[in-house]
Amino acid sequence: MAYQQQQNQSGAIYNAITAGSKIVGSIVAGSDIRIDGIIDGDIQCTGKVVVGEKGYVKGNISCTSAEILGKIDGKIETKQTLALRATAHIQGDVVTQSLIVEPNAVFNGTCQMGKPAVAQLEK
User: Fold this and answer.
1) Domain range holding 66?
2) What is the count of structural domains for the chain?
3) For the chain, how big is the Rg over CA atoms in Å?
4) What is the secondary structure of the chain as a DSSP string?
5) Are 71 and 54 in contact (CB under 8 A)?
6) How far apart are CA 13 and CA 108, in angstroms?
7) How far apart are CA 95 and CA 21, in angstroms?
8) What local confidence, expressed as pLDDT, does residue 41 receive?
9) Over the chain (123 residues), what is each successive 10-residue block's mean pLDDT?
């Protein structure tokens, strides 16, 4: 199944793009989304975006917060926190309130942080 709505342990519903799935086109999500497949397009999410270890996004991501374990080729804009885990590979610019980078994460691009940077997102 390419697309699922699942319920996490807290009872909240989130969207999931499963491993082995590929979507070409933009995604607009009104709740959290987890990507373990391939997305060739932009993602706009009012919640949290999680890109799993096997996940790949070729496009821009705009969301409240994000946790990246996979690969991103594009700009990431978060209003709160962006966490780059050890397996993350980012090729693109970042705009975020707060950035967490684990050892061995790869990030090639520019980064704008703090309230002034995030304020630009809301214009």
Assistant:
1) 3-121
2) 1
3) 13
4) --EEEEE-TTS-EEEEE-TT-EEES-EEESS-EEE-SEEES-EEESSEEEE-TT-EEES-EEESEEEESSEEES-EEESSEEEE-TT-EEES-EEESEEEE-TT-EEES-EEESHHHHHHHT-
5) no
6) 33
7) 28
8) 97
9) 46 78 93 95 96 97 97 97 97 96 96 79 65
pLDDT at residue 12 in the model:
57
The pLDDT, as a whole number, for residue 119 is: 74
Q: How far apart, in Å, are the Cα atoms of 122 and each of 44, 64, 79, 96, 104?
A: 13, 11, 9, 12, 32
Q: From 40, 109, 37, 51, select the one nearest 83 (Cα to Cα).
A: 51
